[in-house]
Amino acid sequence: MKTVTRFLMRRFEWIFVGPLAAFYWILLAVLGVATVTCGFLAWFNHDIVGGEEWVVRPESGRDFLLVIDAAHRGLKALFSSDHFLVGDIHQTPVIVLATRFLGAVFFVLLAGRLFLFAVGGRIAKAFARARMGHDIVIGNSLTAYRYMRAINRQTNHLYTGQALMTGTGFERVVNLQRSRDFENDLGRAGLKRARRVVIAEDGDESTWATARGVAAMDAANDKEIIANIEDTWLLERISQVDPDAHIRPFSYASGAARQVMLAHPPYLLARAYGAPAQHIVIVGYDFVGQALLREFLVTSISWSPAEMMVTIIDPNADKAAAQFRALHPGLAPYVRVTFLKGDLTADDKDLEARFVMECDRSPVCAVYIAIEEEGRPLRFAVAIKDRAERMGWFRAPIFVLAPDGAGLPQMRQGVGKLGQPFQRADKSPHIVTDLTLVPFGGWHAALDGAGLLSKEFDDQARVFHNAYRELVGANNKPTSELAPAQKPWPELSEEYRVSNRRVAAHLRAKLDAAGFDLASWLEGGCTQGRAHMTHEVPPAAHVLDLDDIAELDRLASLEHQRWSVDRALNGWRYGRERNDQKRLHPMLVKERQLSEEEREKDRNNIRQTARLIRDITNGDFDKS
Question: Is residue 173 part of a domain?
């Protein structure tokens, strides 16, 4: 009985306050016009004799006063007026019967709508309990607010204090105030039938504590439990504190960074300038700045150009540099990271001289203003652009952290007209040109970069992990005999889940290295009226020529480079013998130093990648 009741309530919500709500109002308007029109014509053309019999009204009686009377009675028909309920039904004109019927339907539908307005929040809470396949969002943070605005899905919101998620854009959201009985609150929010639980409290500690509480509930066993962790370094390590909980952390900073790197790949930007290295500049090294550095290394390892340079400018650069070296002791062989202390908008001759020296090593291909203070990123971007034009520091586009757009025009993905002559003659405000101010970090884009807008969180990462397990024969071994990286996805630690996400994020760079025209594909999606989402895979399996041994070896070498950087980002470094506790690995060497057996593993990874691209683009793949 409960199941039937919930089903009927879901259908009721779908019609009255869901996708058909607008059609409901249109139907009411059409019924109202039809009822008044029929009532007017019925009374204008017919009359009642003796209070019982309908007769045709003579032409002589049809004057202006009758028009007014007929219009009045037509309006009364909307409220089931008894003027149209007299007489024998078999002798009643059809238009009178139509007026009766339409008026009754209009009255019932209007009464139902007024009832919903009267009970308001109470009926909404009943709908919330009956929903299926919805999201539950817990917390009052700005991330919770932005998630519910960006996601196109029914959402039940558990909040404390005052509910902020109301008004335009939150018609799908039902606000439920939290009580001391948290488990009962989740029951009211329909946890058993929910698709995903997103926790975004005001701090990382409280978010993680709430997420662990949700994960411990029996009703949450098969749910996606996603926790918003702002600290980007902690993001990829916090799950190690409680690996059995399988809570999936995400952050705005990481999502924003990944999305901009995939939308405007630095290797394409560097190539447009003919630069010998991918040289990016990050101004501000808080959470977003750290995420930009990491995502640059995750998404942009390439052979064209191969060298990678990062210049970071921050008032606390000395402290940031010490922390960076402590957390990533094995990264130095793969990327040149230079920390410069100071403010590039100030008159600091020493900073300027050191910055120019870095620019002389290789032209800058992208500048990222990652200052996380409202209003300041745009101010810094304009000031740095002005100085760069006057002093000739660089011609690269300047990407400005702007969660709300900062009034800047949105740019097409890709490289636009960078490095081309006469590009200033192009009046299009949406094409990237030299020193263009490009906004990034919009909330919809950041949620896309974090993987929250794909059909299932981590779907591509699961595909790549399952392919790896198939490659090493893990499907035929008992779980107890498997290495940590070979376990099934539900049992996989967060460190290795992160690694699989990074494999998926590097896919476009591999295809570019294989000869796919990535720039045209990126720009083509925008010209068709939509930008490519970060989880979209280019239809490019045809460029991976597995019969060309030299090409296969070149891509396998690139994959080894990517894997090495992935390990170094997690704190691993070279050691003659593997030691997981000390994070030492003997394979963290140049590709030419690998044994033939290890090289063949990288070749097999490329073969698997080619197969997966075909399966993904054809929609034929297993992500279980």
Answer: yes
